[in-house]
Amino acid sequence: MGGADGGPDRTKREFPRSRLEERAAAWVAEGGLEAETFFAAYDLNSAGQLLLSALNQAMQKALGLTYEAWRILWLLELVPTSEPRRLAHTLWLSRPAVTASLNRLEELGYITRQRAANDRRLVVVEATAAGREAAERGRTAYVELVRQFFEGFSEEERAELSRLARAFWRLNYEAARRAGMEPKVRPAVVALPQDKRTEGTDGGEQAGG
After folding, report:
1. Average pLDDT of 89-116?
2. Whether 80 contacts 91, CB under 8 Å
3. What structural domains does the chain harbor?
4. What is the maximal distance between C-alpha atoms in the chain?
5. Radius of gyration of the chain (CA)
6. What is the pLDDT of residue 152?
7. What is the dihedral of CA 180, 186, 189, 192, to 10 degrees?
8. How far is CA 107 from CA 3, 72, 164, in A?
9. What single DSSP character describes residue 196?
10. Residue 96, preceding bond cis, omega within 30 degrees?
11. If you average pLDDT over residues 69-94, what whole number do you get?
């Protein structure tokens, strides 16, 4: 597979900037930011918005859920139970967004919420059998979409894209945290219930991206 129909040559194409984009870069440059840095941020943001929009559309079509609501089901496939505040921190969501998603998931019978036996102030969230089945259907939609988006990118290109995106995230995380931005947990940390194996540790790797 190759050439203009979606094969490996596709990623070698040049994509000229529009006049509006060039004008935007010039305007930002007047404020002291070089064009290369502006376009790195602009393209990263544009790619993220495109992927998020497509994932939302795919989940709406497959499940009638937002992508973020499906991510909650995804996380509940990886851990047996969680709490709303931990879901918010782990998935980089606001508390109101988590509450709205949980309301919808509970309405559909995909999760249950109950008070923790050891602390009645805490709410414990768990997926139902129907929720686990929905998570599986969402996984199928996720895999199909992501494969489609990365069609024509070589293994090396995917690895390099991942490396650069992860470096951007990790190198800027602490500054974002100090500025009060979400999330409020360190990278590579999931707010998991601790057991004897993880007691005294961070509890694992972040998931659900």
Report:
1. 92
2. no
3. 33-178 (1.10.10.10)
4. 61
5. 20
6. 86
7. -40
8. 48, 14, 40
9. T
10. no
11. 92
